[in-house]
Structures are given as C-alpha cells and as structure tokens.
Write a structure and sequence with these properties.
2 copies of one chain form a homodimer.
Chain A lengths: L4 E2 L11 H6 L4 E5 L2 E6 L3 H10 L1 E5 L5 E5 L3 H8 L12 E3 L2 E2 L5 E3 L2 E6 L2 E5 L5 H12 L4 E4 L3 E6 L3 H9 L11 E6 L2 E6 L8 E6 L5 H11 L5 E4 L3 H6 L35 H7 L5 E8 L9 E4 L2 E12 L4 E9 H4 L4 E4 L2 E6 L5 H4 L1
C-alpha cells in the first residue's frame, strides 16, 4: 500500500495537545479509541533511535480513562477481569486482561485503583465504557461509569526520569514501576506514574486540566532541550523488539488470554467473582493458537498475512517490522499449536525463519 | 492542519474489498469501527459530482453487522432502543437511536429484522457488541451476539438502480426504501436493501462471502462502465447538504436524541421495555442543546469549533463544508437552546450567517 491520507473530523477526536503535536511536525496518526494518536514525526527508524537514546514526549490522550466509582466499583472491575484485584494498592497500576463470559479478550488495560471505590481503567482500543455500563445496568450495580477528563502524556526514553524530575521535582526518582504519586504542575496536582508503552523507561503524566496541556508540553520541551527531547509516539520497531502486545493488532476479541501468553495475569484458582473464570478454567490447555515470535534474516512477505506450511494455514502474522538494531525481520504471529509442537522453523518464500517465544530473547537469537 | 498519513495496521482492519479499493486509487481513509473506510478517490468535490450525477461503489464494510439471535433477541434489541420495534417486518431496515439508561446516545444504527429471533444491528462507530453483551450477561438473556461475517457494499447515485439491476436482476427496482430482498450473485443469495448514506438513491449489498468480494466489485465496474461508475465513499459535501447525521461527529454519547432532532424515532408513550424511556420521558423538552444548520455566504473559521456570541459559548460546530452546488458554507452545530430562542443569525468574524433547521431547505435559503 502507498501512503494514504487520514480524513480527520470531530469523530477522530483531537486532544488538548493536538495543536502542539501539529506544530511539532507530526507526519502520521492512527485512530485509537476514536481519538488521534500520533505515530511518527520523522520516520519510524529515526524516531526509534531518538526514543532509545534520549527522551520523547508522546500524546497518548487516546489511552482513555474509564472511571468506575461508587460502592460496587470494585465488584464490577473484578467481574470484568480474571486477575485478582483484591490486594491492589491505591495509586498502583495493574496490567489486567478484561475477558467476557466466553473468555474472549475485551481489552488489556492497566487498572488503577485511584482511591477506595474509584478505579481508572486505562484502556486499549475498544469501548470498555459500553461493556461496563451494560454489565452494571444488567446486574443493577451501584456505580458511576464515565470517560474521565484525563489526557495522559508519556515521557519515554533513558533520559525520561531526568526530564520528569526537572518538571515535577525530586519525588519522581522514588516512584517505582507501575506506582504513582500525585505531583504538582503550576499548582495543580496530577498523577505521575512510572509506566508507558516502551521498554526504554519513563513516566505517564495523567493530565487533568486541559488548560495546562500546552504549558506542560512547552515546559517539557524547554527543560529537555539539552537532553535532545523530541516528540514521538508508540514506536512499531521498539514495541515489537520489546514484545509489547497491541490489542487489535496482535490479538482481539476472538482470542483468549492463554493464546496471548497472558497466563501470569490470570488468577485461575482465586476465590473471586469474575465472569470469565469458568470459561477460562475450561479452556486452559485446550486453546488452539499461541502468539509467537518469528525471526528472519531478511524481510519476508506474507500474502494476506497468512502463514502457510504443508499446504495449510498454520497461523497469521499480526505485527511485523525490520529491526535496525538486530538486523532481523521480526514478526508476532498467532500460530496453531499443533504446528508448533512439531516445528521450530518456518519457510516463507524460500527463506527460513525461527519460531521463538515472546518476548524476543536477542541474546539467544544472535 | 496539513494532510497527515494514516498509519495502517491490522488493528485498522482491511476488508475483503480493500485490494480493489487500493487498485482503484483510494487517496484517503478514515477508521470506523476499527476498520478502514475509504473517504475519497480524487477530491471531495470531484467525488461529490460523480455521486450526484452518475453512480459510485463504496466499501462500507465498516458498517459492521452486530447479529443478535436467540429467544431473547427481540427483548434485548427493544431494551437498547426507545423506538418501538414490535411491528418490524422481516427484511426491513429501521433507523433507530440506541440509548442508555440516562438517555445518552450509544449509536444510531439501522436495525434489520433478518428473521424471527435474528436481528442485525448495522452500526455507526461505537462498539455496540460490547454494550449488548454486557446487558445480555447482566440480565441473563438467552441470546447470541456476534459481529457477523457481513461486509456491506453500497451502490449510490441516480444510476445506482440501473447498475444494481444489471448485476442482481429485475427484482431490484421493486425493492422499496429500507426494504430488502435476498438476491443471488454467482449462485449465492445475499441481502440487497434500498438504502445507503446519501440522498442520491441507491442500494446496499450485504456481502456474506468474502471470496465473492472481488468478483462483485469487478462485475459492478464492468457492468457500470457506460454509466460512468466510479469508486467512492460517504461524501462530506453530499451528506451535510442532505442533513445526514454522523455519530461521533454531529453527536456522541454526551447527547440525547432530542438534541439531535431524532424525536420521530422515539416512541415515548409506547408500552415497551426500553431502558432509556424513563430518562427520555424526564428529559423531554428540558434538553440543553439542539443540532442546527448554519449557513454563511463564505467560509468562516471557528477556533476550537466554538461558537461565541455575547462573549459566551453558545454552541459548537460539529461538521462543516463548502457547498459547491449552493455556493454556501454549511455547518451542523450543537447550539444552546436558550440562545436559539432569541436569535436566528450568528456573526462570526464579521460575517453574518443564518441559523436554520435541519435538514437544510435550500429553496428557502436561496
């Protein structure tokens, strides 16, 4: 496919940062939760090195926060996820699959217990708000569910801590991974969490006042000048190298969490009221697919994303990219498990690739 | 904003027609229900005249069909909409707002009673599947809910009937508006409905076999050569001139159907079990906004879409376009009703525009 223009309208919602993103020369967007998500500013590879070497500021407002509050909020959150949330600490982020009654993945958000009886579901790309409202109404739960007026801004890269500390102060380095503090910017306290959709380290600032969006953006770029701060966005190369999953790409509502290797985030034996647990207990070990990594020495092409072997479809490629660092062509693919049990390689177009576990282990690969 | 590239991935799903759409030279897409929706092939104005004068073929696969089947299917559909569906006829399309328990708009689909206990919800851009599944699980309803393997292809324009008749036969002209027939293409019966997102007349073909997508596309272009058939998509100029609403643009989940002028599609006094009716009965007449048309003699600019009068925000522009036919700048705007009661014009940047009812009445305007 050649490049196509994105037709932008109010349905593809702008964010409080969009004016700055545009002024910074954004070249591409995708649409995520009905909102603009900047994808690149120079090109994927150049953006990749900047992210890995310095620090970037990302407008990830599209990580909408579905706020569930009220006396039954914890009960509803637990219904939606097979991960035991009973020991969650206030201010902590918990990566948790959301699964329906058949075990299908509805979303894979970060759950944040913002306060007692006040949860934020920091969602991937699907309307979790509608599902939550449907469940709450059907079960007659005493909750309020809304898309909160929160617009996350990510600061990612090895110099992120330095930059965020300059802007939010000396409490920043003490924040542990997936923990947060309420810190002030221009007199307004907002949540700052050590998190983000890269493995380069960094923070997400949960902006709660749209009028502070441009001042915050400007301050980060001013304070980060000597750190070579640049605008960026979730980077395809970095996230595939790091094995970070993307809901809608690598998996969707037709897949269950076992197929995606999310076993560690499911408490199958917990005594919790979670709507997907009966189905997941029954599926365990019997799932058909497994998300795997593919590694080739050169780029390969999969017509219609299909992976063919022995004249049958044995899987499909979900994400793929050339890794400039490792000089390998990397893919994430949903593979049939019966094929995996007998095969560790794959031949595409005469080129032999290795089928490996995720995340990629580049020490083993080289 | 200058043009931006859409970063396409598997999350922005391709359709069975995408290869043909690409070969036909599509220049822009938007993302709709997590799927690619072609927006223009030459430019909006050129595409507009082709649509109004001849016939176009549109890949509207993104109008996903949420299929609700089973003994409780009609009960669930009725719960979701305040429109009385009890007299629906098989094969008929019903435009119907979906509203939640607070009266907020969840979607504005066309409901199709495909068979007894088998409904298709032909959705606008929100994950109705999740809401429906949440409600069904909460209420313990005996239904199956899935995104059906259906990919609508629209044929729109004054010559659409001629073209569709050539491909699907002589039963086509007898199909009334929002009615359908099961007609065969290459031996496979599929639903053909007189419908579509334009006022130029036409049909939607509910393709139910992806292997027939390219043969169907090719046949329409071959048979339509002398009719000047062209590829197209929902056209911003045409749909605004025609007053066709776009969920997510003109209204969203924060609005209720009265604000959008959808009163005719709500059976407020019907004896039906619809979850939004109590709220809608209470809101009626007390809603804050009204979706109106704005007409200016030349293009005007609304910073941040805000409509300012008497130093206060009195509304916001949701969609806007220059009409080459009427030589007017047209907008749809959510206006505060208290402003409307005293004002029939609006001054923007020194230019005076008229505030009019929707759909636009161009005989009155000229």
């Amino acid at each position: 496919m050649t490049d196509k223009i994105l037709s932008i309208s109010r349905r593809t919602r702008a964010t409080p940062f969009t004016r700055r993103v545009e002024a910074a020369g954004v070249k591409g967007y995708t649409v995520y939760n009905h909102m603009l998500l900047p994808t690149f500013f120079t090109n994927n590879e150049d953006d990749y090195w900047s992210l890995c070497q310095n620090v970037q500021v990302w407008d990830v407002s599209c990580e909408r926060q579905i706020e569930v509050s009220g006396p039954d909020s914890e009960r509803l959150i637990q219904l939606m996820t097979p991960r035991d949330i009973s020991r969650a600490v206030i201010g902590q982020g918990l990566y948790a699959p959301l699964c329906d009654e058949s075990g299908g993945l509805v979303n894979d958000p970060v759950l944040i217990k913002f306060a007692n009886n006040d949860w934020w579901v920091s969602i991937a790309d699907s309307d979790v708000r509608l599902w939550a409202r449907g469940l709450a109404h059907g079960f007659g739960l005493d909750v309020k569910i809304r898309e909160a007026a929160i617009w996350p801004l990510a600061v990612q890269g090895p110099r992120a801590e330095q930059l965020v500390t300059r802007v939010f102060g000396n409490e920043v380095p003490g924040i542990r991974f997936f923990r947060s503090k309420m810190l002030e910017f221009r007199g307004k306290a907002m949540m700052v969490m050590r998190s983000g959709y890269s493995k380069q380290g960094g923070f997400e600032i949960y902006l709660n006042d749209p009028d502070l969006a441009e001042p915050l953006w400007d301050e980060l770029f001013e304070q980060g000048q000597d750190l070579n701060v640049r605008p960026g966005g979730p980077n395809l190369i970095e996230r595939i190298e790091s094995g970070l999953l993307s809901y809608g790409n690598d998996m969707n509502f037709t897949h269950n969490p076992f197929e995606c290797g999310l076993d560690a985030f499911i408490d199958l034996d917990a005594d919790i009221e979670s709507m997907s647990l009966p189905a997941l207990r029954a599926i365990r070990g019997k799932h058909v697919h497994q998300l795997m990594g593919l590694v080739f020495d050169e780029a390969v092409f999969f017509p219609d994303f299909a992976i063919i072997a022995d004249d049958r479809v044995v899987g499909d490629v979900r994400s793929q990219v050339w890794s400039p660092r490792y000089q390998k062509y990397l893919a994430m693919a949903m593979m049939k498990r019966d094929f995996l049990s007998a095969n560790e390689t794959l031949t595409v177009d005469g080129k032999i690739g290795n089928i490996v576990d995720l995340p990629f282990d580049f020490d083993a690969i080289r």
